[in-house]
Amino acid sequence: MRNLGIIIITSFLLSGCVTTKIMKASYSSQVDPDYLFSTNKAIAVLVAENENTLETKYYVNQVVEGLKERGFQNVYSYKNVNEATVPIDITVIINVSKKIDSYQYQGANLGLVDSGRTTTNCTGWGYSVNCTQNNQKTIGITGYSTKTGYLTGYYFAANWFSLPSEKKIMFTFAASFEDKCSDRAVYEFLIDETIKRVDFQKPNKYDYSVQMPENYSCVY
After folding, report:
1. What residues are paired with 48 via a beta bridge?
2. Phi, psi (rounded to 5 degrees) for 47
3. Whole-angstrom Cα distance, residue 91 to residue 46?
4. What's the CA gap between 155 and 170, in Å, rounded?
5. Terminal Cα-to-Cα distance of the chain (whole angstroms)
6. How many CB atoms lie within 10 A of CB 110?
7. At 46, phi and psi to the nearest 5?
8. 3-state SS string over 79-126?
9. Are the C-beta atoms of 162 and 35 separated by less than 8 Å?
10. What is the set of domains in the chain, with CATH numbers?
11. With the CA atoms of 112, 117, 123 and 125 taken in that order, what torsion angle do they form, in degrees rounded to the nearest 10?
12. CA distances (Å), origin 130, targets 120, 124, 135, 188, 193
């Protein structure tokens, strides 16, 4: 019976530890008010030429599919743009990147400190007994010092150009500082949310959080 009780308690504690992950990020955009966006315009998704070109290529297909879900009928990647049956109207040049910054802060130093409790040890017998008191130690704060922390930022940027005029018509940017996720998970989250949030009529800038599905893991 005792073992059954332990199993029930353990199962309850484990089930209580399952929480829904909340992902946080920020979104900002600038848009040309004179440009008329429409879903029948053909788009080519390209990759920015920089130190992150190879990594960014992994996410081109996700951007293509995301734009199609937004209603754009003709969306091509750099790999099949030559197969387009209609003239390309818009090029979207994307880039993913990660930056690690350090910062200074005052942090506590831990060590052994007096607990305020004592123990008494006695030796001997009768008149020859000898007792000593010992202060008990515990883990506590022994002081403060300057420490170094690290902040990892993940970024997704997209520059939109009108191909006929070669002018920039929109810029979208997303950032997240999720520090317990894989790079891939954060990039995919940023791209998915950015495309969903693009407003073709006006610029935007805000922070947001998304409650992910139950048992979602951002480490893969």
Report:
1. none
2. -115, 135
3. 7
4. 17
5. 41
6. 11
7. -115, 170
8. CCHHHCCCCCCEEEEEEEEEEEEEEEEEEEEEEEEEEEEEEEEEECCH
9. yes
10. 21-103+152-211 (3.30.160), 105-146 (no CATH)
11. 180
12. 10, 6, 17, 71, 74
Tokens of 187: 């990039």
Condensed to tens digits (0 to 9), the pLDDT of residues 120-135 reads 888 888 778 888 888 8
Partners of 89 in beta bridges: none
Q: Can you give the three-state secondary structure of 16-43, one letter per residue? A: HCCCCCEEEEEEEEEECCCCCCCCCCCE
Cβ atoms of 158 and 169 closer than 8 Å: no
Q: How confident is the model at residue 4 (pLDDT cuts 50, 70, 90)?
A: very low
Instruction: Please report, for residues 155, 157, 167, the alpha-carbon distance to residue 175 in angstroms, rounded to integers and kept in the order given.
Output: 5, 9, 25
CA distance 128 to 139: 36
- Per the structure block, which two tokens stand in for 178? 């999720």
Single-letter residue type at 138: T
CB 176 within 8 A of CB 189: yes
CB atoms within 10 A of CB 213: 7
- Mean pLDDT is lowest, of 57-61, 74-78, 132-136, for 132-136
CA 187 to centroid of chain Cα atoms: 8
